[in-house]
Design brief:
- Helices cover 27% and strands 26% of the residues.
- Helix 1 packs across helix 2 and helix 2 runs parallel beside helix 3.
């Protein structure tokens, strides 16, 4: 039986095959993307002229250790290619992301990326978003208990990431992992969530992935979105 770590590594290394010399890369966050950043570091060692925009402090630290030249988001007009992971992927290549706590920076980087390649193992593929993973939502610390009540009113069960010692994002906010029975209309839900004062960003990544690399026991499958991500 293939171990989960091997599947993640296989998907990540397949995604790095799309990297070309001279690119500006978005460097995602998470256990699968970790392997992609390692592979990008090896390309830099081989002489590739690459620059990276990290989506978290953890990824920034990893990239610096590997010698990957880094840029701030404000220093680039666009990003050639971002490689990142996901917590769920549906048949439209819409995503739930952010269980690692970096969803805001991940979405900001994805938004200006020409290509957003998502790397997952096949356990992350779902028919309907929300059936396996809760939806992470980043909210301000100020009044977050009140924000939680607004989230509950939308029919979910929010749990504060970290519990009694809340996880604090790189942006100084907290995250509620919101469990829905399923998310039948993610586009409508995204609008409703964004209307709640205190909600900074959601883990719904809609029409952002251009490709999804899926690793399973039968090999690698690359799913492509054949329309604009915007």
């Amino acid at each position: 039986m293939i171990e989960l770590g091997e599947l993640k590594k296989a998907a990540a290394e397949k995604a790095v095959e799309f990297v070309e010399d001279g690119m500006v890369l978005g460097l995602g966050t998470g256990s699968t993307t970790y392997f992609a950043v390692e592979a990008i570091g090896r390309l830099v060692t081989q002489g590739y002229k690459l620059q990276g925009v990290p989506t978290s402090k953890a990824t920034e630290e990893q990239a610096r250790k590997l010698g990957i030249p880094l840029l701030e988001l404000d220093q680039v007009d666009s990003i050639d290619l971002t490689i990142d992971g996901a917590d769920e992927v549906d048949g439209n290549l819409d995503l739930i992301k952010g269980m690692g706590g970096a969803l805001l920076r991940e979405k900001m980087v994805a938004y200006i990326s020409e290509r957003e390649i998502i790397v997952v193992d096949d356990s992350k593929i779902v028919d309907v978003l929300g059936t396996k993973s809760p939806l992470p939502i980043e909210v301000t610390r100020f009044g977050h208990g009140r924000t939680r009540k607004h989230l509950e009113a939308l029919g979910c069960r929010p749990e504060l990431k970290g519990g009694a010692e809340p996880f604090i994002t790189d942006n100084g906010n907290v995250i509620y992992n919101c469990r829905f029975d399923s998310i039948d209309n993610p586009y409508s839900l995204e609008i409703q969530l964004k209307q709640i004062p205190g909600v900074v960003e959601t883990g719904l990544f809609l029409r952002m992935a251009t490709s999804v690399v899926v690793a399973g026991k039968d090999g690698i499958d690359v799913k492509e979105r054949y329309r604009s991500k915007k």
